[in-house]
Amino acid sequence: MEVKLSVRRYDPESTNTVSHYQEYQMEMDEASTILDALIQIREDVDGTLSLRCSCRSAICGSCAMRVNGEAGLACNTKVIDVIPSDGTPIVVEPAGNLPVIKDLVVDFQPFWNQVKSVEPWLQPAGEEPEAEYLAPDEDMLHLAGVVSCILCGACVSDCTVLEVDSNFLGPAALAKAYRFVGDPRDDADAKRLETLNQEGGVWDCTRCMKCVEVCPKGVAPMDRIMSLREKVMDAGHTNTNGARHATAFVDSVRHSGWLDELKLPIKSFGIFNLKAMIGLIPLAIRSQRAGKVPPLIHKNIPDVENVRKIFDKVENKK
Amino acid sequence: MKYAFYPGCVSRGACPELYTATLEVCDILGIELDEDALKSASCTGAGVLQEKNLRLGDTLNARTFAMAEKAGLPLMTICSTCQGVMSQANERLVADPEYLASINEDLKEEGLEYKGTINPKHLLWIIVEDLGMDFFNSKVVRKLEGLKLAPFYGCYLVRPSDALGFNENPERETSLESIIEAVGAEVVDFPGKSLCCGFPILTINPKNSVKMVANHTIDAKDRGADAMVTPCPLCHLNLDGYQPNASSAAKRDIDLPIIHLPQLVGLSLGIAPEKMRLNKHIVSTKKLLSELAVAP
Q1: Domain residue spans of chain A
Q2: pLDDT beyond 70 at B295
Q3: In Å, how far is B38's CA from the nearest CA of chain A?
Q4: Which one of 3.30.450.40, 3.40.50.300, 1.10.1060.10, 1.10.1740.10 gives the CATH number of domain A109-234?
Q5: Number of CB pairs < 8 Å for A and B?
Q6: What does the longest C-alpha to C-alpha distance in chain B come to?
Q7: Each residue's pLDDT tens digit, B183-233
Q8: Which CATH superfamily is domain A2-105 in?
Q9: By the CB < 8 Å criterion, does B108 face chain A?
Q10: Which residues on chain A are in Cβ contact (under 8 Å) with B60?
Q11: B52/A233 touch (CB, cutoff 8 Å), yes or no
């Protein structure tokens, strides 16, 4: 079949240092992948095209890039699955949120810095055992998904928070942090959770699920971040806007059955946070003028006692 | 066609215009809404409650589904977040009969049992799938020609795609564009349309949240959009309510009205703008409506 690819090119050493798109047209087999197509371009058409790849089997994690705007591994993305229906070329771009070195090759240093910062190694307490550290199967099962991470960076590429804030630890590093916080052999939970509670940690995730959607290995980083939030709160770190927001939200549903939009921001920032309270005033005035203020008296939903009973029953199970 | 109406918290709170516009639009489209069937239903948990206790969220949503089942009606949502959270809960409940049975144990006292037959649907999907585009086109009386609209879905209406039934209903992926085209407007495509509006971190990291508002609204504006349309009231609240902050942070005018999906549909059905409270937005819709020659 005939395939058209539009590849984003960038070469800091060439005369044209502005990134641009170059189109390639070629014959490909129906079973071929984006990586096959890129290698064919490099070998037969244009030897100056740079890309990273190694195993070609979705194991090494080298070839993460964006295909039609979404991150994934070039080696497990079949060309036939991503041909746009409107006849336009398949767009291939380097991974996002990381500096481009050349063409499809990005600088992974910021990624490694994030991963290293969560101290991704076991920190057990006490004497070293004579043989291996033993852990019961049932305590390790919940880590089965997260240890599948191949550090390809697809989640980091498409993270919507990293797009606006490079200080965010990012989905890969946070998933890695969960892997150690959740490991029964590790004894550094207290220190780890304290760090994860800081700015740029677990609370800065928007829950947009982009990392869950693009991860080629089913690691579901966002779900791990949500579990870490719970662990952070359980460890007693409740004095953050994020923890207060989650608590105020749940309290509102328990109390009235639905969300009290007036109280939520006040409780999240903390009523004694004068700067934040003053910051809310312009919005309050704008909303008031537009008639977009939630009811001043927040009424309970009918039969709210049934909702409260469910809270009691389920929370007792926890 | 009759549905058990789940309005969500925001259309009864900070976005009353969404509730009003929905009732107006459904009336003309022949979508009969039962506003009583789910009057005792709780908030979905919006993903926030699920952070603390997933099972609690699933139980509350199973309770809502059981109420719709009891009324013998399909369930309609008007919020991307409600829809997404319900779809995800439903996927877990239906996939695991043992789990569902244990959840039902906690609903028994109220005389409720969820049998797993509800398929919650956003109004957007109901128009595209249940009514069909041919029927919808036949109802359009005012073509909004010349209007350029950027779609903005809201994360929970696009991810996770498997729980949202994108494999069985691939038209969902471009449903908003289908509506924009059907009302005679032009789609302004931009990468931000399926990304985060910043609302969930509004009180946690306001700086990042406002940056997201700025990025999306400015990108859509620079690509020629006259307005943005969204099926998610939470996206609306951030993109509309915090646009003045985004404008100051980015040091430039943005002035991009953020229209709720039912308001757009309503305009094409000939409903008067003030009936849908289009005059009740933070970013004024006046200029937009005057360009459309529709009295504000």
Answers
A1: 2-105, 109-234, 241-317
A2: no
A3: 10
A4: 1.10.1060.10
A5: 172
A6: 58
A7: 999 999 999 999 999 999 999 999 999 999 999 999 999 999 999 999 999
A8: Beta-grasp domain (3.10.20.30)
A9: no
A10: 253, 307, 310
A11: yes
Q: Spell out which residues of chain B touch residue A249, defining contact as CB-CB under 8 Å.
A: 46, 48-49
Interface test with B, best of A207, A269, A293 (most B CBs within 10 A): A207
* CB neighbours of residue B267 within 10 Å: 27
**Which CATH architecture best describes the domain B2-122?**
Up-down Bundle (1.20)
| B33: helix, strand or coil | strand
pTM of structure? 0.95
**Nearest-angstrom CA–CA distance, B13 and B121:** 21
Helix ranges restricted to H, B96-222: 97-105, 123-125, 133-139, 175-182, 206-222
In chain A, which residues have their Cβ closer than 8 Å to the Cβ of B102? none
CB A209 within 8 A of CB B81: no
**C-alpha separations of B103 from A190, A218, B41, B173 in Å:** 33, 26, 16, 32
Name the residue in chain B with its Cα closest to that of A222.
B51
Q: HSE (CB half, 13 Å, CA atoms) of A224?
A: 31
Q: What is the DSSP letter of A44?
A: I
pLDDT of residue B162: 93
* Cβ B15 vs Cβ A280: under 8 Å: no
The reply to whether B133-291 shares the fold of B2-122 is no
Helix or strand or coil: residue B132?
A: coil
Can you tell me the distance from the alpha carbon of A246 to that of A157, in angstroms, rounded to the nearest whole number? 27
Structure tokens belonging to residue B211: 């940056």
Interface pTM, i.e. ipTM = 0.94
Compute the average pLDDT of residues B268-272: 97
Chain B positions in Cβ-Cβ contact with residue A96 (cut-off 8 Å): none
> Which residue among A164, A249, A318 places its CB closest to the CB of B212?
A164
